[in-house]
Predict the 3D structure of the following.
Amino acid sequence: MRNSWEKNARKSSGVRRVNGIAIRTRSVSEAIAEALRGLSAKHVAERLKTNLRTVENWKQKKTAPQAKHVAAILNDEELCGPFLREMGRPDLAHQHEIKTLERRIEALKQAEQRHREHTNEIRMDLEAARTPDRLGSGLVQRRGDGAAQPGGAAEKPGEEGGE
């Protein structure tokens, strides 16, 4: 008869039987190696700001990452999804991917808004350049600091008066 501690001991990897059902278990190092498959060790090391040899050891299942590396993986948009999926949490991987896409959409919306604002500024500048000033002395021109200046040549920043 087996001791209770032997019966309840967790294996780091392999196949376990729980209530008659075979469950495949994997070690963290196996899951990390699988999650990083297809990515270069150099690329991962750069993203996580760690040593190339460290990542190569993870990919070869020689070692597992320290807690600080796991935290960095979970904070990395590219690495988090595959890591969670390999750790048996496809639900969290899916949520992460949705959040990542939402952040990218928001960034695109902000970039689009900045582009529209810039385009409107250019349009206003063009209209101002085509419109004579009130004194009729010529076109409105821009100074070096971007402010409108009626007629004459544009001043350089830092120049005052005509001295």
